[in-house]
Amino acid sequence: MAKKAKKTIRREWTKADIKELKAHSKARTPVIKISKVTKRSVGALRQKALYLGIGLGHQR
User: Fold this and answer.
1) First CA to last CA across the chain, in angstroms?
2) pTM across the whole model
3) Distance (Å, rounded) from C-alpha 55 to C-alpha 60?
4) DSSP summary character for residue 52
5) Cα separation of 1 and 28, whole Å?
6) Radius of gyration of the chain (CA)
7) Residues whose CB is less than 8 angstroms from the CB of residue 34 and which lie 6 or more positions away in sequence, other chains included
8) Rounded to whole angstroms, how far apart are CA atoms 48 and 16?
9) Which of the pair, 60 or 25, is modelled with greater confidence?
10) How far apart are CA 51 and CA 43, in angstroms?
11) Is 4's pLDDT higher than 90?
């Protein structure tokens, strides 16, 4: 029997979350560390950064 896939739980981005992401971008914090602190996936962080027009990781 196949394993069940982990259910994705989506969380809205609050203004505080966006402010924190911008601060990490300015401080050049590695994406993996931001991921652990915010409890969001690397992909989610990169997508939001792209949408906001800020750099993360190698996109500088």
Assistant:
1) 45
2) 0.80
3) 5
4) H
5) 44
6) 13
7) 21, 24, 45, 56
8) 14
9) 25
10) 12
11) no
